[in-house]
Amino acid sequence: MIETFEEIGIRSELLKAITELGYEKPMPVQQQVIPVILQSNRDIIALAQTGTGKTAAFGLPLISNIDEKNKNPQVIILCPTRELCLQIANDLNNYGKYIIGLEIVAVYGGASIETQIKQLKQGAQVIAATPGRMNDLIRRKKVNLNDIHTVVLDEADEMLNMGFQEELNTILEMVPSTRRTLLFSATMPREIANIAAKYMKETQEITVGTKNAGAENVKHHYYVVHASDRYMALKRIADFFPDIYGIIFCRTRQETKDVAEKLMKDGYSADALHGDLSQQQRDYVMQRFRLKNIQMLVATDVAARGLDVDDLTHVINYNLPDDVEIYTHRSGRTGRAGKSGISISICHTKEKFRLAQIEKMIKQKFEHKLVPSGKEICEKQMLCLIDRMETVEVNESQIAEFLPVVYKKLEVLTREELIKKFVSTEFNRFLEYYKNATDINVSANSERREGSPRNQAAQGFTLLRINLGKMDGFNPRELIGMINDQTRDRSIVIGKADIQKSFTLFEIESSQVDTIFKAFKGIELNGRRVFVERSREYGGEPREFKRREYGSERSYGGDRPSGASRSSSGGDRSYSGKRSFGGDRPSGDKPRRRDRKY
Ligand code: AMP
Protein backbone atom coordinates (compact mmCIF):
# COMPACT_ATOMS: atom_id res chain seq x y z
CA MET A 1 0.00 0.00 0.00
CA ILE A 2 1.31 3.42 -0.98
CA GLU A 3 2.06 5.42 2.13
CA THR A 4 2.96 8.89 0.86
CA PHE A 5 1.60 11.38 -1.63
CA GLU A 6 5.04 11.58 -3.24
CA GLU A 7 4.90 7.85 -4.07
CA ILE A 8 1.36 8.09 -5.34
CA GLY A 9 2.53 10.10 -8.35
CA ILE A 10 0.51 13.31 -8.45
CA ARG A 11 1.88 16.54 -9.93
CA SER A 12 4.33 18.56 -7.89
CA GLU A 13 2.04 21.64 -7.88
CA LEU A 14 -0.57 19.52 -6.11
CA LEU A 15 1.95 18.16 -3.63
CA LYS A 16 2.91 21.70 -2.71
CA ALA A 17 -0.71 22.75 -2.19
CA ILE A 18 -1.72 19.76 -0.07
CA THR A 19 1.39 20.05 2.06
CA GLU A 20 0.29 23.59 2.81
CA LEU A 21 -3.17 22.25 3.67
CA GLY A 22 -1.54 19.94 6.20
CA TYR A 23 -2.24 16.65 4.42
CA GLU A 24 0.62 14.48 5.61
CA LYS A 25 -0.29 11.13 4.17
CA PRO A 26 -3.06 9.72 2.02
CA MET A 27 -6.22 8.58 3.77
CA PRO A 28 -7.34 4.97 3.05
CA VAL A 29 -9.78 5.91 0.31
CA GLN A 30 -7.05 7.96 -1.35
CA GLN A 31 -4.55 5.10 -1.09
CA GLN A 32 -6.97 2.90 -2.94
CA VAL A 33 -8.58 5.24 -5.44
CA ILE A 34 -5.76 7.55 -6.59
CA PRO A 35 -3.51 4.84 -8.11
CA VAL A 36 -6.45 3.30 -10.01
CA ILE A 37 -7.37 6.67 -11.51
CA LEU A 38 -3.78 7.50 -12.38
CA GLN A 39 -2.67 4.14 -13.67
CA SER A 40 -5.69 2.65 -15.41
CA ASN A 41 -8.71 3.63 -17.37
CA ARG A 42 -11.16 1.60 -15.35
CA ASP A 43 -14.45 2.81 -13.97
CA ILE A 44 -14.71 2.83 -10.20
CA ILE A 45 -17.45 2.28 -7.67
CA ALA A 46 -16.16 3.41 -4.31
CA LEU A 47 -18.19 2.81 -1.22
CA ALA A 48 -17.05 5.57 1.06
CA GLN A 49 -18.71 7.79 3.60
CA THR A 50 -18.41 11.54 3.48
CA GLY A 51 -15.56 12.68 5.64
CA THR A 52 -13.26 9.88 4.54
CA GLY A 53 -11.29 12.16 2.22
CA LYS A 54 -13.02 11.11 -0.99
CA THR A 55 -13.00 14.58 -2.58
CA ALA A 56 -9.21 14.49 -2.65
CA ALA A 57 -9.35 10.83 -3.69
CA PHE A 58 -10.88 11.76 -7.03
CA GLY A 59 -9.90 15.44 -7.09
CA LEU A 60 -6.12 15.07 -6.85
CA PRO A 61 -5.62 12.51 -9.63
CA LEU A 62 -8.20 14.13 -11.90
CA ILE A 63 -6.56 17.54 -11.61
CA SER A 64 -3.21 15.86 -12.02
CA ASN A 65 -4.40 14.55 -15.40
CA ILE A 66 -5.98 17.80 -16.58
CA ASP A 67 -4.64 19.46 -19.68
CA GLU A 68 -4.81 23.05 -18.50
CA LYS A 69 -3.91 24.39 -21.94
CA ASN A 70 -7.18 23.03 -23.28
CA LYS A 71 -9.95 25.32 -22.06
CA ASN A 72 -12.75 22.86 -22.80
CA PRO A 73 -14.45 20.94 -19.98
CA GLN A 74 -12.71 17.63 -19.33
CA VAL A 75 -14.22 16.51 -16.03
CA ILE A 76 -17.80 16.79 -14.76
CA ILE A 77 -18.42 16.14 -11.09
CA LEU A 78 -22.08 15.64 -10.23
CA CYS A 79 -23.23 15.95 -6.64
CA PRO A 80 -26.60 16.29 -4.89
CA THR A 81 -26.60 19.81 -3.44
CA ARG A 82 -25.45 23.30 -4.13
CA GLU A 83 -23.46 23.32 -0.90
CA LEU A 84 -21.57 20.17 -1.73
CA CYS A 85 -20.99 21.51 -5.23
CA LEU A 86 -19.42 24.67 -3.84
CA GLN A 87 -17.41 22.67 -1.36
CA ILE A 88 -16.00 20.40 -4.05
CA ALA A 89 -15.12 23.37 -6.27
CA ASN A 90 -13.50 25.05 -3.31
CA ASP A 91 -11.45 21.96 -2.34
CA LEU A 92 -10.34 21.45 -5.93
CA ASN A 93 -9.38 25.09 -6.26
CA ASN A 94 -7.28 24.74 -3.14
CA TYR A 95 -5.54 21.66 -4.50
CA GLY A 96 -4.95 23.19 -7.91
CA LYS A 97 -3.98 26.68 -6.91
CA TYR A 98 -0.43 26.32 -8.26
CA ILE A 99 -1.55 25.03 -11.65
CA ILE A 100 -1.68 28.06 -13.88
CA GLY A 101 -4.56 28.01 -16.32
CA LEU A 102 -6.67 25.54 -14.32
CA GLU A 103 -10.30 26.70 -14.05
CA ILE A 104 -12.95 25.06 -11.95
CA VAL A 105 -16.56 26.23 -12.15
CA ALA A 106 -19.47 25.32 -9.89
CA VAL A 107 -22.94 25.27 -11.44
CA TYR A 108 -26.05 24.64 -9.40
CA GLY A 109 -29.72 25.56 -9.23
CA GLY A 110 -31.08 28.54 -7.38
CA ALA A 111 -28.44 30.88 -8.82
CA SER A 112 -28.30 32.86 -12.06
CA ILE A 113 -27.80 30.51 -14.98
CA GLU A 114 -26.62 33.42 -17.11
CA THR A 115 -23.67 34.09 -14.82
CA GLN A 116 -22.78 30.41 -14.86
CA ILE A 117 -22.99 30.34 -18.66
CA LYS A 118 -20.60 33.32 -18.80
CA GLN A 119 -18.15 31.53 -16.51
CA LEU A 120 -18.30 28.42 -18.68
CA LYS A 121 -17.70 30.50 -21.80
CA GLN A 122 -14.51 31.85 -20.31
CA GLY A 123 -13.23 28.29 -20.20
CA ALA A 124 -13.21 25.67 -17.44
CA GLN A 125 -11.64 22.25 -17.41
CA VAL A 126 -13.58 21.00 -14.40
CA ILE A 127 -17.30 21.52 -13.75
CA ALA A 128 -18.80 20.68 -10.38
CA ALA A 129 -22.56 20.56 -10.84
CA THR A 130 -25.88 19.55 -9.44
CA PRO A 131 -27.66 17.22 -11.89
CA GLY A 132 -30.63 19.51 -12.54
CA ARG A 133 -28.54 22.53 -13.52
CA MET A 134 -26.08 20.45 -15.52
CA ASN A 135 -28.92 18.94 -17.45
CA ASP A 136 -30.35 22.37 -18.12
CA LEU A 137 -27.01 23.68 -19.39
CA ILE A 138 -26.56 20.67 -21.64
CA ARG A 139 -30.08 21.12 -23.06
CA ARG A 140 -29.27 24.74 -23.78
CA LYS A 141 -26.09 23.56 -25.45
CA LYS A 142 -23.95 25.73 -23.22
CA VAL A 143 -21.44 23.04 -22.36
CA ASN A 144 -19.02 21.60 -24.84
CA LEU A 145 -19.01 17.91 -24.00
CA ASN A 146 -16.54 16.78 -26.66
CA ASP A 147 -13.48 16.60 -24.39
CA ILE A 148 -15.17 15.18 -21.31
CA HIS A 149 -13.09 12.18 -20.32
CA THR A 150 -14.35 11.64 -16.76
CA VAL A 151 -17.69 11.91 -15.00
CA VAL A 152 -17.73 11.65 -11.22
CA LEU A 153 -20.96 10.80 -9.44
CA ASP A 154 -20.38 11.96 -5.89
CA GLU A 155 -22.79 10.88 -3.15
CA ALA A 156 -24.64 8.92 -5.81
CA ASP A 157 -27.08 7.42 -3.32
CA GLU A 158 -28.06 10.90 -2.17
CA MET A 159 -28.59 12.04 -5.74
CA LEU A 160 -30.94 9.12 -6.28
CA ASN A 161 -32.70 9.76 -2.98
CA MET A 162 -33.29 13.30 -4.11
CA GLY A 163 -34.93 12.14 -7.31
CA PHE A 164 -32.15 12.96 -9.80
CA GLN A 165 -32.28 9.57 -11.54
CA GLU A 166 -33.63 10.98 -14.80
CA GLU A 167 -31.17 13.86 -14.95
CA LEU A 168 -28.30 11.45 -14.28
CA ASN A 169 -29.46 9.16 -17.06
CA THR A 170 -29.69 12.05 -19.51
CA ILE A 171 -26.25 13.41 -18.63
CA LEU A 172 -24.62 9.98 -18.79
CA GLU A 173 -26.16 9.44 -22.20
CA MET A 174 -25.00 12.80 -23.53
CA VAL A 175 -21.33 12.64 -22.50
CA PRO A 176 -18.90 10.77 -24.79
CA SER A 177 -19.20 7.02 -24.40
CA THR A 178 -15.40 6.79 -24.16
CA ARG A 179 -15.39 8.64 -20.85
CA ARG A 180 -14.73 6.92 -17.58
CA THR A 181 -17.20 7.05 -14.72
CA LEU A 182 -16.24 7.23 -11.07
CA LEU A 183 -19.07 6.61 -8.65
CA PHE A 184 -18.86 7.41 -4.94
CA SER A 185 -21.58 6.40 -2.56
CA ALA A 186 -21.97 5.83 1.16
CA THR A 187 -24.45 3.02 0.61
CA MET A 188 -25.14 0.59 -2.16
CA PRO A 189 -28.87 0.48 -2.90
CA ARG A 190 -30.08 -1.50 -5.90
CA GLU A 191 -30.50 1.65 -7.99
CA ILE A 192 -26.76 2.26 -7.84
CA ALA A 193 -26.08 -1.23 -9.12
CA ASN A 194 -28.55 -0.47 -11.93
CA ILE A 195 -26.65 2.68 -12.92
CA ALA A 196 -23.40 0.74 -12.83
CA ALA A 197 -24.85 -1.99 -15.02
CA LYS A 198 -26.20 0.48 -17.54
CA TYR A 199 -23.54 3.16 -17.72
CA MET A 200 -20.29 1.74 -16.41
CA LYS A 201 -17.81 -0.77 -17.71
CA GLU A 202 -14.89 -2.77 -16.35
CA THR A 203 -15.82 -1.54 -12.94
CA GLN A 204 -13.46 -1.79 -10.05
CA GLU A 205 -15.22 -1.85 -6.72
CA ILE A 206 -13.42 -0.22 -3.83
CA THR A 207 -14.73 -0.39 -0.31
CA VAL A 208 -13.32 1.74 2.41
CA GLY A 209 -14.11 0.21 5.77
CA THR A 210 -17.03 -2.17 5.92
CA LYS A 211 -19.62 -2.00 3.25
CA ASN A 212 -22.53 0.15 4.40
CA ALA A 213 -20.90 0.52 7.77
CA GLY A 214 -20.94 3.63 9.86
CA ALA A 215 -17.65 5.44 10.17
CA GLU A 216 -15.21 3.43 12.21
CA ASN A 217 -14.55 6.03 14.83
CA VAL A 218 -18.20 6.67 15.54
CA LYS A 219 -19.63 5.26 18.75
CA HIS A 220 -23.33 4.47 18.72
CA HIS A 221 -25.22 5.20 21.91
CA TYR A 222 -28.90 4.95 22.69
CA TYR A 223 -31.08 6.24 25.48
CA VAL A 224 -34.50 4.85 26.26
CA VAL A 225 -37.18 7.17 27.55
CA HIS A 226 -40.92 7.49 27.17
CA ALA A 227 -41.85 9.30 23.99
CA SER A 228 -43.17 12.19 26.05
CA ASP A 229 -39.76 12.59 27.71
CA ARG A 230 -37.82 12.85 24.46
CA TYR A 231 -37.25 16.56 24.64
CA MET A 232 -36.30 16.42 28.30
CA ALA A 233 -33.77 13.70 27.47
CA LEU A 234 -32.35 15.87 24.70
CA LYS A 235 -31.87 18.78 27.06
CA ARG A 236 -30.14 16.63 29.63
CA ILE A 237 -27.85 15.12 27.02
CA ALA A 238 -27.00 18.60 25.77
CA ASP A 239 -26.25 19.69 29.31
CA PHE A 240 -24.12 16.63 29.93
CA PHE A 241 -21.94 17.51 26.95
CA PRO A 242 -21.32 21.22 27.48
CA ASP A 243 -19.04 21.44 24.46
CA ILE A 244 -21.39 19.60 22.16
CA TYR A 245 -21.22 20.63 18.51
CA GLY A 246 -23.74 18.56 16.66
CA ILE A 247 -26.73 18.03 14.44
CA ILE A 248 -30.05 16.91 15.87
CA PHE A 249 -31.99 15.05 13.23
CA CYS A 250 -35.76 15.24 13.25
CA ARG A 251 -38.23 13.47 11.04
CA THR A 252 -40.37 16.36 9.86
CA ARG A 253 -40.05 20.06 9.23
CA GLN A 254 -42.57 20.74 11.95
CA GLU A 255 -40.68 18.67 14.50
CA THR A 256 -37.47 20.40 13.47
CA LYS A 257 -39.04 23.80 14.00
CA ASP A 258 -40.60 22.78 17.32
CA VAL A 259 -37.45 21.28 18.81
CA ALA A 260 -35.24 24.17 17.66
CA GLU A 261 -37.70 26.71 18.95
CA LYS A 262 -37.92 25.01 22.33
CA LEU A 263 -34.14 24.77 22.60
CA MET A 264 -33.70 28.41 21.73
CA LYS A 265 -36.35 29.48 24.18
CA ASP A 266 -34.66 27.35 26.78
CA GLY A 267 -31.45 29.26 26.24
CA TYR A 268 -29.46 26.76 24.21
CA SER A 269 -27.27 27.72 21.33
CA ALA A 270 -29.39 26.16 18.59
CA ASP A 271 -31.15 26.86 15.32
CA ALA A 272 -33.23 25.05 12.73
CA LEU A 273 -32.45 23.99 9.18
CA HIS A 274 -35.37 22.76 7.11
CA GLY A 275 -36.99 23.04 3.72
CA ASP A 276 -39.28 25.92 4.61
CA LEU A 277 -36.34 28.29 4.79
CA SER A 278 -35.29 30.33 1.79
CA GLN A 279 -31.86 29.62 0.32
CA GLN A 280 -30.62 32.82 1.90
CA GLN A 281 -31.89 31.78 5.33
CA ARG A 282 -30.39 28.32 4.89
CA ASP A 283 -27.02 29.79 3.96
CA TYR A 284 -27.15 32.06 6.95
CA VAL A 285 -27.94 29.28 9.42
CA MET A 286 -25.33 26.97 7.91
CA GLN A 287 -22.70 29.66 8.01
CA ARG A 288 -23.42 30.37 11.66
CA PHE A 289 -23.16 26.67 12.39
CA ARG A 290 -19.92 26.30 10.46
CA LEU A 291 -18.47 29.21 12.39
CA LYS A 292 -19.62 27.53 15.59
CA ASN A 293 -21.84 30.40 16.52
CA ILE A 294 -24.48 27.71 16.93
CA GLN A 295 -23.73 24.56 18.91
CA MET A 296 -26.71 22.49 17.92
CA LEU A 297 -28.34 22.47 14.52
CA VAL A 298 -31.78 20.88 14.42
CA ALA A 299 -32.32 19.61 10.90
CA THR A 300 -34.27 17.37 8.60
CA ASP A 301 -32.26 14.83 6.64
CA VAL A 302 -32.80 16.59 3.34
CA ALA A 303 -31.88 20.04 4.61
CA ALA A 304 -28.70 18.77 6.29
CA ARG A 305 -27.43 17.15 3.13
CA GLY A 306 -25.59 20.16 1.86
CA LEU A 307 -23.86 20.79 5.11
CA ASP A 308 -20.21 19.91 5.29
CA VAL A 309 -18.75 20.11 8.73
CA ASP A 310 -15.92 17.86 9.74
CA ASP A 311 -15.62 18.18 13.46
CA LEU A 312 -19.05 17.38 14.81
CA THR A 313 -18.79 15.86 18.25
CA HIS A 314 -22.30 14.40 18.14
CA VAL A 315 -25.12 13.46 15.89
CA ILE A 316 -28.41 13.08 17.71
CA ASN A 317 -31.28 11.09 16.30
CA TYR A 318 -34.19 12.80 18.00
CA ASN A 319 -36.19 10.08 16.35
CA LEU A 320 -34.79 7.02 14.70
CA PRO A 321 -35.13 7.37 10.94
CA ASP A 322 -37.68 5.23 9.12
CA ASP A 323 -35.09 4.08 6.66
CA VAL A 324 -32.13 2.25 8.16
CA GLU A 325 -29.79 3.61 5.48
CA ILE A 326 -30.56 7.14 6.58
CA TYR A 327 -29.08 6.24 9.94
CA THR A 328 -25.78 5.50 8.20
CA HIS A 329 -25.82 8.90 6.57
CA ARG A 330 -26.65 10.67 9.78
CA SER A 331 -24.05 8.95 11.90
CA GLY A 332 -21.45 9.32 9.15
CA ARG A 333 -21.55 13.04 9.70
CA THR A 334 -19.55 12.65 12.85
CA GLY A 335 -16.24 10.84 13.31
CA ARG A 336 -14.86 12.41 10.17
CA ALA A 337 -11.33 13.10 9.05
CA GLY A 338 -9.83 10.85 11.69
CA LYS A 339 -11.76 12.40 14.57
CA SER A 340 -14.03 10.46 16.87
CA GLY A 341 -17.71 11.12 17.29
CA ILE A 342 -20.85 9.87 18.98
CA SER A 343 -24.12 9.07 17.30
CA ILE A 344 -26.91 9.23 19.86
CA SER A 345 -30.38 7.84 19.41
CA ILE A 346 -33.21 8.79 21.71
CA CYS A 347 -35.59 5.85 21.59
CA HIS A 348 -38.69 4.63 23.28
CA THR A 349 -39.26 1.07 24.37
CA LYS A 350 -40.99 -0.04 21.19
CA GLU A 351 -38.02 0.87 19.05
CA LYS A 352 -35.70 -1.87 20.22
CA PHE A 353 -36.20 -3.93 17.11
CA ARG A 354 -35.24 -0.96 14.97
CA LEU A 355 -32.00 -0.64 16.87
CA ALA A 356 -31.33 -4.29 16.13
CA GLN A 357 -31.94 -3.68 12.43
CA ILE A 358 -29.50 -0.78 12.42
CA GLU A 359 -26.90 -2.77 14.34
CA LYS A 360 -27.08 -5.42 11.66
CA MET A 361 -26.62 -2.87 8.95
CA ILE A 362 -23.74 -0.93 10.48
CA LYS A 363 -22.15 -4.06 11.91
CA GLN A 364 -21.61 -2.29 15.16
CA LYS A 365 -23.29 -2.62 18.53
CA PHE A 366 -25.22 0.17 20.18
CA GLU A 367 -24.26 0.99 23.72
CA HIS A 368 -27.13 1.60 26.11
CA LYS A 369 -26.57 4.81 28.04
CA LEU A 370 -28.63 6.23 30.87
CA VAL A 371 -29.99 9.74 30.61
CA PRO A 372 -27.78 11.53 33.10
CA SER A 373 -29.20 12.45 36.45
CA GLY A 374 -29.28 16.02 37.72
CA LYS A 375 -26.29 15.28 39.92
CA GLU A 376 -24.24 13.89 37.06
CA ILE A 377 -25.05 16.88 34.90
CA CYS A 378 -24.12 19.33 37.63
CA GLU A 379 -20.86 17.50 38.20
CA LYS A 380 -20.00 17.54 34.52
CA GLN A 381 -20.88 21.20 34.12
CA MET A 382 -18.88 22.06 37.19
CA LEU A 383 -15.79 20.27 35.87
CA CYS A 384 -16.23 21.95 32.54
CA LEU A 385 -16.37 25.31 34.20
CA ILE A 386 -13.20 24.57 36.14
CA ASP A 387 -11.49 23.36 32.97
CA ARG A 388 -12.45 26.54 31.17
CA MET A 389 -11.19 28.59 34.04
CA GLU A 390 -7.93 26.68 34.09
CA THR A 391 -7.28 27.23 30.43
CA VAL A 392 -8.58 30.79 30.10
CA GLU A 393 -6.00 33.17 28.75
CA VAL A 394 -5.17 35.96 31.15
CA ASN A 395 -4.50 39.27 29.53
CA GLU A 396 -2.10 40.53 32.18
CA SER A 397 -1.55 43.98 30.78
CA GLN A 398 -5.23 44.75 30.27
CA ILE A 399 -6.50 43.57 33.62
CA ALA A 400 -3.58 44.92 35.62
CA GLU A 401 -5.17 48.26 36.32
CA PHE A 402 -8.36 46.67 37.69
CA LEU A 403 -6.69 44.14 39.91
CA PRO A 404 -5.87 46.29 42.95
CA VAL A 405 -9.57 47.06 43.51
CA VAL A 406 -10.49 43.42 42.99
CA TYR A 407 -7.80 42.21 45.43
CA LYS A 408 -8.98 44.73 47.97
CA LYS A 409 -12.58 43.60 47.72
CA LEU A 410 -11.71 39.93 47.98
CA GLU A 411 -9.04 40.10 50.64
CA VAL A 412 -11.50 39.28 53.41
CA LEU A 413 -12.24 35.87 51.90
CA THR A 414 -10.17 32.79 52.58
CA ARG A 415 -9.06 30.65 49.66
CA GLU A 416 -11.82 28.11 50.36
CA GLU A 417 -14.49 30.77 50.62
CA LEU A 418 -13.33 32.33 47.39
CA ILE A 419 -13.52 29.03 45.54
CA LYS A 420 -16.95 28.25 46.96
CA LYS A 421 -18.32 31.63 46.05
CA PHE A 422 -16.82 31.57 42.60
CA VAL A 423 -18.33 28.17 41.84
CA SER A 424 -21.68 29.10 43.36
CA THR A 425 -21.95 32.29 41.32
CA GLU A 426 -21.96 30.30 38.17
CA PHE A 427 -23.54 27.25 39.57
CA ASN A 428 -26.44 27.95 41.89
CA ARG A 429 -28.83 28.14 39.00
CA PHE A 430 -27.79 24.76 37.70
CA LEU A 431 -28.05 23.15 41.09
CA GLU A 432 -31.45 24.66 41.60
CA TYR A 433 -32.53 23.58 38.18
CA TYR A 434 -31.76 19.97 38.69
CA LYS A 435 -32.67 19.84 42.35
CA ASN A 436 -35.80 17.81 41.72
CA ALA A 437 -34.83 16.19 38.46
CA THR A 438 -36.55 12.87 38.08
CA ASP A 439 -35.11 9.74 36.54
CA ILE A 440 -36.57 9.53 33.04
CA ASN A 441 -34.80 6.36 31.98
CA VAL A 442 -36.90 3.42 30.97
CA SER A 443 -35.44 -0.02 30.76
CA ALA A 444 -34.87 -0.99 27.16
CA ASN A 445 -36.47 -4.33 27.93
CA SER A 446 -39.30 -2.83 29.85
CA GLU A 447 -42.58 -4.55 29.24
CA ARG A 448 -44.44 -1.52 30.40
CA ARG A 449 -46.36 0.01 27.58
CA GLU A 450 -46.18 3.69 26.85
CA GLY A 451 -48.93 5.28 28.85
CA SER A 452 -49.43 2.37 31.20
CA PRO A 453 -49.88 3.00 34.92
CA ARG A 454 -47.12 4.26 37.08
CA ASN A 455 -47.84 4.28 40.75
CA GLN A 456 -45.10 6.41 42.13
CA ALA A 457 -44.38 10.07 42.09
CA ALA A 458 -40.86 11.18 41.35
CA GLN A 459 -38.43 11.47 44.19
CA GLY A 460 -39.18 14.50 46.34
CA PHE A 461 -42.71 14.71 44.98
CA THR A 462 -46.07 13.47 46.20
CA LEU A 463 -48.83 12.41 43.90
CA LEU A 464 -52.11 14.21 44.50
CA ARG A 465 -55.51 13.72 42.97
CA ILE A 466 -58.01 16.46 42.26
CA ASN A 467 -61.60 15.72 41.28
CA LEU A 468 -61.51 17.80 38.11
CA GLY A 469 -60.72 16.31 34.73
CA LYS A 470 -61.20 16.57 30.98
CA MET A 471 -64.97 16.40 31.48
CA ASP A 472 -64.74 19.70 33.31
CA GLY A 473 -62.53 21.21 30.63
CA PHE A 474 -59.66 21.03 33.10
CA ASN A 475 -56.13 21.34 31.74
CA PRO A 476 -52.60 21.92 33.06
CA ARG A 477 -52.94 25.66 32.59
CA GLU A 478 -56.00 25.70 34.81
CA LEU A 479 -54.36 23.47 37.37
CA ILE A 480 -51.46 25.88 37.64
CA GLY A 481 -53.73 28.89 37.78
CA MET A 482 -55.75 27.28 40.52
CA ILE A 483 -52.72 26.42 42.61
CA ASN A 484 -51.36 29.93 42.07
CA ASP A 485 -54.49 31.57 43.27
CA GLN A 486 -55.34 29.24 46.11
CA THR A 487 -51.88 29.11 47.66
CA ARG A 488 -50.78 32.60 46.67
CA ASP A 489 -47.35 31.06 46.50
CA ARG A 490 -45.77 30.88 43.09
CA SER A 491 -42.66 29.03 44.18
CA ILE A 492 -44.33 25.67 44.78
CA VAL A 493 -42.92 23.20 42.30
CA ILE A 494 -45.36 21.07 40.35
CA GLY A 495 -43.99 17.99 38.63
CA LYS A 496 -45.95 16.11 36.03
CA ALA A 497 -49.68 16.01 35.60
CA ASP A 498 -52.02 13.51 34.06
CA ILE A 499 -55.47 14.80 33.21
CA GLN A 500 -57.96 11.96 33.17
CA LYS A 501 -61.63 12.08 32.27
CA SER A 502 -63.02 12.93 35.68
CA PHE A 503 -59.93 13.61 37.75
CA THR A 504 -56.35 14.76 37.52
CA LEU A 505 -53.23 13.36 39.09
CA PHE A 506 -50.37 15.71 39.66
CA GLU A 507 -47.02 15.70 41.36
CA ILE A 508 -46.30 18.34 43.93
CA GLU A 509 -43.19 18.99 46.00
CA SER A 510 -43.65 16.75 49.04
CA SER A 511 -42.88 19.59 51.43
CA GLN A 512 -45.85 21.55 50.06
CA VAL A 513 -48.55 18.91 50.38
CA ASP A 514 -50.04 20.41 53.54
CA THR A 515 -50.04 23.87 52.00
CA ILE A 516 -52.03 22.51 49.09
CA PHE A 517 -54.52 20.72 51.34
CA LYS A 518 -55.04 23.88 53.38
CA ALA A 519 -55.37 26.07 50.32
CA PHE A 520 -57.91 23.84 48.66
CA LYS A 521 -60.03 23.24 51.71
CA GLY A 522 -63.69 24.04 51.10
CA ILE A 523 -63.36 25.55 47.66
CA GLU A 524 -66.01 25.19 45.00
CA LEU A 525 -65.99 25.48 41.24
CA ASN A 526 -69.26 26.25 39.46
CA GLY A 527 -71.11 25.09 42.54
CA ARG A 528 -69.17 21.84 42.86
CA ARG A 529 -66.93 20.94 45.80
CA VAL A 530 -63.29 20.57 44.79
CA PHE A 531 -61.33 17.87 46.63
CA VAL A 532 -57.62 17.31 46.66
CA GLU A 533 -56.29 14.13 48.22
CA ARG A 534 -53.28 11.87 48.15
CA SER A 535 -53.45 9.48 45.26
CA ARG A 536 -53.37 5.79 45.99
CA GLU A 537 -53.21 4.72 42.40
CA TYR A 538 -51.83 6.29 39.36
CA GLY A 539 -53.93 5.69 36.32
CA GLY A 540 -51.72 6.88 33.52
CA GLU A 541 -48.39 8.08 32.37
CA PRO A 542 -48.09 11.69 33.42
CA ARG A 543 -47.52 14.22 30.75
CA GLU A 544 -44.73 16.65 31.27
CA PHE A 545 -46.01 20.15 31.41
CA LYS A 546 -45.02 22.20 28.47
CA ARG A 547 -43.19 24.47 30.73
CA ARG A 548 -42.74 27.18 28.22
CA GLU A 549 -46.47 27.67 27.85
CA TYR A 550 -46.54 28.86 31.35
CA GLY A 551 -43.23 30.61 31.29
CA SER A 552 -41.05 30.96 34.26
CA GLU A 553 -39.89 33.77 36.40
CA ARG A 554 -37.82 31.68 38.67
CA SER A 555 -35.07 33.51 40.33
CA TYR A 556 -32.50 31.24 38.76
CA GLY A 557 -33.74 32.06 35.33
CA GLY A 558 -30.47 33.45 34.09
CA ASP A 559 -30.25 36.76 32.38
CA ARG A 560 -32.42 35.69 29.53
CA PRO A 561 -35.98 36.95 29.57
CA SER A 562 -38.43 34.13 30.06
CA GLY A 563 -40.62 35.14 27.14
CA ALA A 564 -44.08 33.71 27.51
CA SER A 565 -46.51 35.22 29.88
CA ARG A 566 -47.54 33.10 32.75
CA SER A 567 -51.16 33.99 32.76
CA SER A 568 -52.67 30.61 33.32
CA SER A 569 -56.33 29.95 33.00
CA GLY A 570 -58.66 31.26 30.38
CA GLY A 571 -62.38 31.10 29.79
CA ASP A 572 -64.76 31.61 32.64
CA ARG A 573 -62.54 30.23 35.35
CA SER A 574 -61.83 32.52 38.15
CA TYR A 575 -58.59 31.07 39.39
CA SER A 576 -56.21 32.52 36.91
CA GLY A 577 -52.87 33.54 38.20
CA LYS A 578 -49.19 33.40 37.66
CA ARG A 579 -46.79 30.98 39.13
CA SER A 580 -43.78 28.93 38.33
CA PHE A 581 -43.39 25.25 38.44
CA GLY A 582 -40.76 22.69 37.81
CA GLY A 583 -39.99 19.02 38.06
CA ASP A 584 -37.20 18.63 35.62
CA ARG A 585 -35.68 21.73 34.22
CA PRO A 586 -38.09 24.53 33.47
CA SER A 587 -37.61 26.24 30.20
CA GLY A 588 -36.33 29.71 29.85
CA ASP A 589 -34.12 29.24 32.80
CA LYS A 590 -31.31 27.26 31.42
CA PRO A 591 -28.28 28.42 33.24
CA ARG A 592 -26.30 30.41 30.78
CA ARG A 593 -22.86 29.20 30.12
CA ARG A 594 -20.64 32.15 30.26
CA ASP A 595 -17.43 32.28 28.33
CA ARG A 596 -18.87 29.73 26.03
CA LYS A 597 -16.57 28.31 23.52
CA TYR A 598 -19.11 28.64 20.79
P1 AMP B 1 -14.16 14.65 2.35
O1 AMP B 1 -14.52 13.22 2.63
O2 AMP B 1 -13.64 14.82 0.98
O3 AMP B 1 -15.29 15.57 2.67
O4 AMP B 1 -12.93 15.06 3.29
C1 AMP B 1 -13.04 15.18 4.68
C2 AMP B 1 -11.99 16.08 5.28
O5 AMP B 1 -10.72 15.46 5.29
C3 AMP B 1 -11.79 17.41 4.53
O6 AMP B 1 -11.77 18.44 5.50
C4 AMP B 1 -10.46 17.28 3.87
O7 AMP B 1 -9.83 18.54 3.77
C5 AMP B 1 -9.72 16.37 4.83
N1 AMP B 1 -8.68 15.55 4.17
C6 AMP B 1 -8.76 14.93 2.98
N2 AMP B 1 -7.65 14.24 2.73
C7 AMP B 1 -6.82 14.42 3.78
C8 AMP B 1 -5.51 13.95 4.11
N3 AMP B 1 -4.84 13.16 3.32
N4 AMP B 1 -4.99 14.35 5.28
C9 AMP B 1 -5.68 15.16 6.10
N5 AMP B 1 -6.92 15.63 5.86
C10 AMP B 1 -7.48 15.27 4.70
How are the secondary structure elements laid out?
Elements: H1 5-8, H2 12-21, H3 28-39, E1 43-47, H4 54-64, E2 75-78, H5 82-95, E3 104-107, H6 113-121, E4 126-129, H7 131-139, E5 150-153, H8 156-161, H9 165-174, E6 180-185, H10 190-199, E7 203-207, E8 218-224, H11 230-240, E9 246-249, H12 253-265, E10 270-273, H13 279-290, E11 296-299, H14 301-304, E12 314-317, H15 324-331, E13 341-347, H16 352-362, E14 367-368, H17 374-391, H18 396-399, H19 403-410, H20 415-433, E15 461-466, H21 476-487, E16 494-499, E17 504-509, H22 513-520, E18 524-525, E19 528-529, E20 532-534, H23 547-550
Parallel strand pairs: 1-6, 1-7, 2-4, 2-5, 3-4, 5-6, 8-13, 8-14, 9-11, 9-12, 10-11, 12-13
Antiparallel strand pairs: 15-17, 15-20, 16-17, 18-19
Bound molecules: adenosine monophosphate.
Adenosine monophosphate binds at residues 23, 26-27, 30, 50-56, 310, 336-337.
